[in-house]
Amino acid sequence: MYRAKQRGWLEMDLLVGMWAERNLPTADPPMLAAFEELLDEENPDLLKWLTGQLEPPEPLRRNPAFVAVYRDTQKQLGDHTLQQANAAGSKEWIRGWDDWNRTDEQPNTAAAEAADTTSPDK
To answer: Which tens digits make up the pLDDT trace of 92-106?
Structure first.
């Protein structure tokens, strides 16, 4: 339970931890073993898999704990977000920080000064 609720990312603490709180007390040994395997996954990947931003690897698609947490996550997303606000299926929600202005391949001023370069390859 501790590993499920103390993952280090608030989003994962809530998604995985709250599911565990509701379901682990009545889980059978095979489900507990599957959940333990799920907990070994890294937060960035697991969050994207659970939220549908990336397709999970085949072994996780067969993991009953992953399937249960995934379904719960998708239900919560459906219940608490506007459809228009969601990214298209299997698309990342947030691309990440990008200091480069892709229209002219020049960095933003602060990024260029910090990197002391004008090329995105350096």
So the answer is: 655 554 545 455 555
